[in-house]
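User: Batch of two.

Assistant: Item 1 of 2:
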Amino acid sequence: MDMSAIVQAIGSIGFPIVMCIIMFNYIRSTQDALVKSLDALTDTVKELERRLKNMIGE
């Protein structure tokens, strides 16, 4: 979204609404990145758990 589109949106629907939309998109993208990181971490922990069980003979 370029600056002219943001300025036009602020002029037509108002600053608070535009900021809520921008903040919603920021929070959503941050949360998506966090979920991906947690999924990767979970997979790593499961793999390490599997290796440890194999090492101790369970």
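Item 2 of 2:
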Amino acid sequence: MVDRRTFLGIAGGIASANMGAQAATVPIIDTHIHLFDPRRPQGVPWPEKSNAVLYHPALPERYRKIAAPLGIVGAIEVEASPWLEDNQWVLNVAAKDTIIVGTVGDLEPGKPEFRRQLERFHRNPLFLGIRYGNLWNRDLSAELSKPQFIEDLKALAEAGLELDTANQDAALIAATVRLTDLVPDLRVVIDHLPQFEPPPQATARRAYEANLRELGNRRQVFVKVSEVLRHVDGRVPDDVNFYRSRLDELWEIFGEDRLIYGSDWPNSDLWAPYPQVLQVVREYFTGKGPTAAEKYFWKNSIAAYRWVKREAGQPQP
């Protein structure tokens, strides 16, 4: 019997080989991968040992082998741990492999130690920002009324760093509107919005749609088109048309200048092998023309994250 991990590896290898001839002429920066190593003495806070698909080392060497044949030339790591020193662990790992062009770390605005920690990690040019939202038992909405939290996010913006918001729901979208009112100079990247199902109740849905459109008017807000695929009746559709209405909505609201590519690797393995994850959005954005594809796959990521080129094959404007 073939277990799920082996199946994913076989399927991914076949798909990768099939796509080799279709490798994009447009270079790709993947703005959302996770790095972790369960073999460390202290273990990892995520994923859990019970997760047979994910509980394996996710390191740049493994990612490069999957991604490079598909035309991916660089990646941004996004935190997968609330442990302070894991920010340094990621920076140390990234320093050894130039496919990593930056990391979005985990610090807590509003805490007395935030400014000291921000100064420490910001010294490293690979440290691009932090993530905050619906993870690690945190709630952005609850923090926005606290002056120190807002002052710390202003310090983040003054440092030229950005904020990713994590695991979307209607409350977090509403909070992001408030946040960008309070800290208008902060660049914000909304993660994984395609996976979020808008509220079914009419009033709540209208409020959500109004908030999303308001964010669409704010040039400092970007949307990461990540976690596009979904399970439906025991399968994961790989036809772009299944996802087209949701992608069209984001395209219509945020346009070609503020959508960016992210795979969510290796978490994406819960849905499909990496080549399938990429193929759906590659087909959609290639269909928008070469200029739009370039912006989605790498140009917009520079505006959102201000990452620095580390390899000859990594593009810069």
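The longest strand covers residues 72-78.
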